[in-house]
Amino acid sequence: MIKRVGVIGAGAMGTGIAHIMAQCGYDVVLNDIDNIYLDKAIKSINTVLDKKIAKGTFTEENKDELIGKIETSTNLNDLKDVDLIVEAIIENIDVKHALFAQLEEICKPETIFASNTSTMSITKLASATKRPEKMAGMHFFNPAPVMKLVEIIRGFYTSDNTVTILKEVVRSLGKDSIEVKKDSPGFVVNRLMLTQFREAFLVLEEGIASIEDIDKAMTLGLNHPMGPFTLMDFTGNDIAYDTLMYMYTEMAMPNWAPPAALKRVVNAGRLGNKIGKGWYDYEKGDKRK
């Protein structure tokens, strides 16, 4: 039974995962390399909870209980007794692989390893361990406390029991899961979403419509909550670039190559909301390109 969860990486995804896990009763160890990131994560969770309290949907007692369930740590050895690891660090397969090799030596044999990667090979990550049957993808969506879907991805050796346990964890969080039966780059959601991104770039580069009108077409015409360019700014243009480059490398198909327009934006340092400018200028209080 999963009672204690280790979340590695205190960025937006790791913070959100730690939040929803604690909210649903799990004891959480949130780990990162520096207390600066951990302090920022706890501050972010407090801010979200304070807004809920102001709306009357949460209480100070609920908040204290939730925050009390999250232990922060910069030492991987503090994860030795967790029942489940959810890795949510940088989308770099070599860095992730090295992390799981370390965790293999630290965690108890029955601990399940999961990666929040949106694209990368679970089988490759599992090769860093001696427990490939206990390794799977557990891909949450941003913001994790709000978004309802979690992709559960099988590696080549992932056992049925591991998938069953992770599905139950997802249900306990009040979320729905889909099972990705084959470890294929991009899984289901990113495979479909990145195809949409590539078409949006073609529409832009062919002069068919502006960035603003492409986004408006997707939100008002297809009822998407965000258009592709707004969504790239939200998640990070650097992440979009790295994800497409990974898909291009793994699939060996030219149509997956990152578009020149995306590369120009990333090279210009316009990474999206996190720095106030991407396809739009958020730091000016508007969304003009």
TrEMBL record:
Stretches assigned to the 3-hydroxyacyl-CoA dehydrogenase NAD binding domain: 5-183
Binding positions for NAD(+) per the UniProt entry: 9-14, 32, 91, 96, 118, 142, 274
Taxonomic superkingdom: Bacteria
Site for Important for catalytic activity, residues: 139
GO function terms (MF aspect): 3-hydroxybutyryl-CoA dehydrogenase activity; NAD+ binding
Keywords tagged on the record: NAD, Oxidoreductase
UniProt xrefs under Pfam families: 3HCDH, 3HCDH_N
Domain 3-hydroxyacyl-CoA dehydrogenase C-terminal: 186-282
Pathway: Lipid metabolism; butanoate metabolism
One Gene Ontology biological process: fatty acid beta-oxidation
Similarity comment text for this entry: Belongs to the 3-hydroxyacyl-CoA dehydrogenase family.
Protein name, UniProt field: 3-hydroxybutyryl-CoA dehydrogenase
Organism (species): Alkalibaculum sporogenes
